[in-house]
C-alpha cells in the first residue's frame, strides 16, 4: 500500500465508485458486481487515442492477502509511464473514507484493420498486392506497429517469414536491396545552381532511399542517396 498520487484523472460516478470499492475492499457488505468490469472498461477506453479500434478489457485480481480499509468512493487513474496495451495495469485509489491506492492488473486487447499475409511468405520476399489483404486483427497480439497502408510496403522486403493470416508489422520490413556492390549506377552530382550526370560503380549494396558510396569514372569516391538506379550526391 502506498500514498495516493496527485488527482488528475477522470472521476467515476458515486454508484460506480461504490461498486469498485465493494469489489476491492471485501470488508464492505456489498457483493462483487459484474458492473465493476464495465466501469473499468469504460475508463480504459476513455484513455485510448482516437481511432484506436475496438477495445476489450479483461480485469485481473488483486492479491487476496491485501487488506484495504472500507472506502465510500474510489476512482481509477493512469499509473505513470503505463501504456494501456496488452498486459498492463491501472491505479485505483480511495478518495473518501480511507487513504490507499492499488495497481489493478488489466489486459487491454485492441482490434483494428491491418494488412495480413494471404499466403505463407518467406524471408526476403518482395511484397505486392496479391500477397496481402486488409482484415480486422488483434493488434495487441504481437509487439510492433501494424502496417495499415499498402504504400508502406513499397520497396520493402520481409525481414522474417510470415504465416498466412499473420498481420504485417513495420518491424517485419526492411528496405529491399536494389543495387549490389560492384553494380554500375548513374551518379547525379548536385551543387549550388547546377546538376551533372556521370557514371559510377556502387561500393556497397543499398535500397531505395538508403545511403551508398560510389566510385566515379575518374576514381573519386562520393557518398549519396540511392534513387532508383541513380545515386544523388550533393557537393
Walk me through this protein's architecture.
The chain is mainly β and 235 residues long. It has three domains: 14-109, no CATH class; 111-175, Antifreeze-like/N-acetylneuraminic acid synthase C-terminal domain (Type Iii Antifreeze Protein Isoform Hplc 12, Alpha-Beta Complex); 177-234, SH3 type barrels. It has two helices and 14 strands; from the N terminus they run ααββββββββββββββ. Strands 1, 2, 3, 4 and 5 form a five-stranded antiparallel beta sheet that branches. A hairpin with a 4-residue loop joins strand 3 and strand 4. It is elongated. Mean pLDDT is 80; it is low at 1-19 and 25-36.
Descriptive keywords:
five-stranded antiparallel sheet, single chain, 14 strands, mainly beta, Type Iii Antifreeze Protein Isoform Hplc 12, SH3 type barrels, 3 domains, disordered N terminus, 235 residues
Considering DSSP H and I runs of 4 or more, what fraction of the residues is helical? 10-25%
H/I helix tally = 2
Total DSSP E strands: 14
Our measurement of the CA-to-CA distance between the termini, rounded to an integer number of angstroms, reads 63 Å
Structural class: mainly beta
Uncertain segments are 1-19, 25-36
Radius of gyration: 28 Å
Oligomer: single chain
State the order of secondary-structure elements, H for helix, E for strand. Answer: HHEEEEEEEEEEEEEE
Amino acid at each position: 500500500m502506498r500514498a495516493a498520487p496527485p488527482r488528475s484523472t477522470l472521476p467515476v460516478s458515486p454508484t460506480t465508485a461504490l461498486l469498485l470499492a465493494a469489489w476491492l475492499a471485501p470488508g464492505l457488505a456489498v457483493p462483487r458486481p459484474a458492473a465493476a468490469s464495465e466501469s473499468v472498461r469504460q475508463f480504459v477506453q476513455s484513455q485510448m487515442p482516437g481511432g484506436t479500434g475496438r477495445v476489450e478489457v479483461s480485469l485481473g485480481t488483486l492479491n487476496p492477502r491485501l487488506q484495504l480499509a472500507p472506502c465510500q468512493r474510489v476512482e481509477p487513474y493512469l499509473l505513470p509511464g503505463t501504456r494501456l496495451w496488452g498486459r498492463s495495469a491501472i491505479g485505483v485509489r480511495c478518495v473518501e473514507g480511507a487513504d490507499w491506492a492499488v495497481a489493478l492488473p488489466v489486459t487491454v486487447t485492441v482490434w483494428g484493420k491491418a494488412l495480413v499475409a494471404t499466403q505463407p511468405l518467406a524471408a526476403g520476399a518482395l511484397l505486392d498486392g496479391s500477397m496481402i489483404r486488409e482484415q480486422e486483427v488483434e493488434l495487441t497480439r504481437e509487439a510492433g506497429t501494424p502496417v495499415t497502408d499498402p504504400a508502406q510496403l513499397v520497396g520493402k522486403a520481409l525481414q522474417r517469414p510470415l504465416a498466412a493470416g499473420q498481420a504485417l508489422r513495420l518491424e517485419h520490413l526492411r528496405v529491399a536491396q536494389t543495387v549490389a556492390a560492384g553494380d554500375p549506377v548513374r551518379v547525379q552530382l548536385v551543387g549550388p545552381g547546377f546538376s551533372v550526370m556521370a557514371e559510377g560503380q556502387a561500393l556497397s549494396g543499398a535500397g531505395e532511399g538508403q545511403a551508398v558510396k560510389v566510385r566515379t569514372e575518374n576514381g573519386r569516391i562520393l557518398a549519396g542517396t540511392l534513387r532508383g538506379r541513380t545515386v544523388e550526391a550533393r557537393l
